[in-house]
Every structure is written in structure tokens, then in C-alpha cells.
Design brief:
The chain is an alpha+beta fold and about 110 residues long. The chain is about 25% helix and about 25% strand.
Length: about 110
């Protein structure tokens, strides 16, 4: 399946990433709120993604909004949409069944 983000999804992503970059530059930690909700969550098509800070790494996880199983290749397409400026070669993957977890240095997002 090819992602076909809408202009609204792209605008929402751009705003989310700009705010996340601001937090990183201000050395603010991205922590999960009540019930594990991230202040940095986005959507594209049937997928959702969210960020949280872990020491000097950003944790980006991807899942299907209907909670069905997710293939790694699908999640990688969502990551490419969410952070197109980050080189995929510096992103570490921890796969699971219904979500996949990606990690990369904070500095990769603010270069």
C-alpha cells in the first residue's frame, strides 16, 4: 500500500514536527501524559504515530488506528512520512505485532 497523505495530514505533520523541533532546541523532554498519551501524535491514512523522548533518543512508534496487525514495511512508510528529513540509516527498529518502534537521536531531527 502506498501512502497518499492529504494536504491536511501533511500540514498537521509539519506543525507537529515544527513544535517537536522547538521542544528539542529548548532541551525540553518529550514525556507521555496521562494514560500514555503523547503530546506529539499524528495520523496518516489508516495509521497513527507518536513521539516520546528517551534520554538522548526520540522514540517514534507507529500503529494502525483500528489496532490490527501491522507489517514492518507499512510502518517504515509511515516513518518516512513522519520524519522525511531523517536518514533511514540512522533509525533503529524494534518490531512488534501491532505496533513498531523506531529510535533515533534527537539531533537528527534538528539538523
Amino acid at each position: 500500500m502506498t501512502l497518499a497523505p492529504t494536504p491536511e495530514e501533511q500540514d498537521a505533520r509539519d506543525g507537529l514536527i515544527a513544535e517537536l523541533q522547538r521542544w528539542i532546541r529548548e532541551n525540553r523532554r518529550v514525556v507521555l501524559g496521562p494514560r500514555g498519551v503523547s503530546p506529539f501524535e499524528g495520523r496518516v491514512g489508516p495509521y497513527a504515530f507518536a513521539f516520546e523522548g528517551e534520554d538522548d533518543l526520540l522514540h517514534l512508534w507507529v500503529w494502525r488506528r483500528d489496532a490490527s496487525p501491522l507489517r514492518v514495511e507499512e510502518a517504515q512508510r509511515v516513518v518516512a512520512f513522519a520524519v522525511p528529513e531523517v536518514d533511514p540509516g540512522v533509525i533503529w527498529l524494534k518490531p512488534a505485532e501491532r505496533s513498531h518502534h523506531f529510535y533515533f537521536g534527537h539531533d537528527e531531527l534538528v539538523r
